[in-house]
Every structure is written in C-alpha cells, then in structure tokens.
Amino acid sequence: MPSYFKYFPKIYYDAVGKGDYKLVTNLLRRVQIKEGLSETAALFDLYDIGGEDTPESVAEQFYGDQRYYWIILLFNKVKDRFYDWPLPQADFEKYVNDKYGSPNGIHHYEVAQSSGPTTSFDDSHMIEVNSTVSGATSVSNYEYELRVQNKKARIKLIKPEFVELITQEFKTLIGG
Predict the structure, then answer these.
(1) 42 pLDDT band (50/70/90 cuts)?
(2) In the chain, domain spans
C-alpha cells in the first residue's frame, strides 16, 4: 500500500467559508475493525512494545514495510499515537513528574477480588477501594501510570499472511 491516505475519498471543501472550494482528502472518513475480529486469536500475535518502538518500526520488523503502521494502529484502536501508544522511558518519566506533584504519592488503594480471577499478569484482578478497607494496599501515582503504560505496550499484531486481505478490505471500506 503506497500511502495510507491515497485511498481516502476526495471532497470539495471551503475552509474559510468564502466560496473558495478546494479538492482535499476527506480525513474525517473512518474505518473500524469488525466487532469480535480483534478477539479472534488465530488472526493475531501478541507483542510487547519495547523502549523506543514506534508503529513504523514495529510494522517494519513484523511486516517488512513500515507503511503498514496503520494496520497496527487500527487493529489496536490507537486513535492518537502520542497518547494511546506507550511513551519512551525518558518521556514517561517526564510525563509522570509533570502530571503529579509527588510521583511517589498515593494514587489509590486496592485489594484483590475475592471471586473470579484472583491473580493476573496486568493487575486486572485488583479492585480500587477506600484506604479503610481491611487488607488494602496503596498504589503510587508512578505505579498507576506504569500499569497504564504496560497495558498500552501489549498489542495485537495481525499475522503477516492477513495483511493483504486487510489492505483490500480497507480500500473497499474507505472508498465506499
């Protein structure tokens, strides 16, 4: 696929309302993955984004072409690559320090749920509670933000054999 935006429809648009219409790419057109498709394990592999990975570098590594970055973003519902994609470590540290007066301050308290899954690799079994609840443990601002980062870092990658099919479906949907 030469360019992600090549297949978007063109529209005439008057940016300032003076009757001076220009032919532009309709950037408001959207396509989304069919419901349930992203849960079909046979279509994807899990991947943990590392340090300085970008959508382009992951696409290059996994698909052999960085121009397929958009498949990674689309399949993982990343709408804003600067906030929905994990930050490099230095940027993460700055973000946490800028956001919180005290990164080591308490963000919330939690306990493990007593029914259903009682363990998980991503702390999804933990329930936020008041500090007065028996057995409650504190989670710092830094720990909380690190969990958010780690959740963003685990992505699903469409298996390479499905890239052409996804590309053809995208062209059909975006042009229609």
Answers:
(1) confident
(2) 4-79+155-175, 89-150
